[in-house]
Design brief:
Layout lengths: L12 H9 L5 H8 L3 H4 L9 H13 L4 E5 L5 H15 L4 E4 L12 H9 L4 E5 L6 H9 L3 E5 L14 E3 L15 H15 L14 H10 L6 H14 L5 H9 L9 H18 L3 H8 L3 H34 L7 E4 L8 H12 L3 E6 L5 E6 L6 H7 L7 E4 L3 E6 L1 H4 L2 H10 L14 E2 L7 H8 L13 E7 L2 E5 L5 E7 L5 E6 L4 H4 L6 E11 L6 E11 L2
Parallel strand pairs: 1-2, 1-3, 3-4, 4-5, 6-7, 11-12, 15-17
Antiparallel strand pairs: 7-8, 8-10, 9-10, 12-16, 13-14, 14-15, 16-17
Helix pairs in contact: 4-8, 5-8, 5-9, 5-13, 6-7, 8-9, 9-10, 11-14, 12-13, 12-14, 13-14, 14-15
Amino acid sequence: MPAKTEELSSFSPLVQKLLSVRGIVGRDDAERFLNPNWERDIYDPFGILNMDKAVSRVLRAVKDNEKIVLYTDYDCDGIPAGVILHDFFKKIGHTNFENYIPHRHNEGYGVNISAVEKIAENGATLIITADLGITDIDAVARAGELGVDVIVTDHHLPQEGKLPPAFTILNSKQTDDTYQDKMLCGAGVAFKLVQALLQKGEFNDIPAGWEKWLLDMAGLSTVADMVPLKNENRALAYFGLKVLRKSRRKGLQMLLRKNRINQEHLTEDDIGFMIAPRLNAAGRMDHPLRAFELLSTDDDALAEELSDHLNHLNDQRKAIVAAITKDAKRRLREREAGEVLVVGNPEWEPGILGLAANALVEEFSRPAFVWGRGGDGIIKGSCRSDGTVSLVELMQNAPVGTFLGFGGHAASGGWSVSLENIHTLETILSETYRGMEKKGVGEELFVDVELSFDDVNWKTYGDIEKFAPFGMENPKPVFLFRAAQVFAVKKFGKVGEHLELQFRNSSGGKIPAIAFFASEKLFGAKVGETVNLAATFEKSMFRNYPELRLRIVDITNNQ
């Protein structure tokens, strides 16, 4: 490890190295990163462009008892955002509101005109969006025609030169916005709106700091939506996890209990692998309102019923995705695929295809577009990037008329296309891809630090834990254990799909290293052979007993 620098000399050598890998070399920056502070790291919500205007309009609606509709997306960002806004209006005693979440298959992503017309017909005069709306120009215009004001709160990229004709817009990705963190998730923006409303409104019955209870939802989305865990996002995720571990939401508690997750020890991995898939399963397999109801209910019986329902939907979702992925891989192997993969079937349900696209990217190492047909008969799909190009830029650079519509992020997105164009989409996207500048995607695994098995102890884990929560732009540190002898190999799981390798430290102590859904390469490990092991640290709380173990990232032969 490198020699201690003067500014970071109070930290352990491992912490210094991990800070250096993250480009943090100054004492102040290190303190800010390792020790998030509420007063310092949570910014003034009125720094967001148009916040004053949005707050004034909402407070007027509350004063005049206008009907407000909270129109949010159907994923694990939009649903918690809807819960945040729901809890706020419920807390201040404004009952003339409702949550609206579009049906993924029947309505599709975003604000749609038919929904706006129904909302206006039912007497609403204000729509507040969350995690959507920034590209829904026609639907927002229709709301205005019907006398309904729209406050768009979103975090997605606006269309170049085009903004919806809303009453006002909260989105730090707008050109003139100077907010300190432009990468908030949708629930993060909703949380900032509630912060501002509580600051400016006269809600004398609400105790100071009450909004911190909403951090469970803001933190959940910040981790699940994979926004960069830097700046304010790091603080929202950090404090959000603390609140999640104490959250009094009956549905959340029941979901955790039924999945054997100890709430007091909840981690970002639990969010990513257990909670978010079940919340998203509602929108993919049924209706997203089921997930919203789970997170907002005060009823014990309903909490249990919805927890069971979401677990069942998630099991269904896994089985269907596995079948689709197997079929898609077979089709792609039977033909010569382009630089961009396009594969689909009218029978495939569009809502779950992003998961299949992920698997194809991992298998074929290239961008993947997977399509099916929605309930409205339109060809729709999801796409995932291998990291070489931004998917939004790829779709924008395609010839005009290629898509009926598209949106998303650099790494993932959604799209629709005509039946005529689906047959040539792979050729068009591959040609477009060839003309774009590519980012390097390294074949070699990045390792933070080389350690020995004697370093696998709770002190080392304590140093690593200071960098949590982990996520986008703050990944878990990966450690190299060179020339490691395999002492035992064990398969586990219902069908032996998981793997545990056992190593030893210099004292003969057992060091377990596991891999869930291990690859064929990992299953090839044999007792007695010497390998180079790349792994992360993790604390298992199986049966409420803390165990320190390694999570395998990769193994190679030691030559």
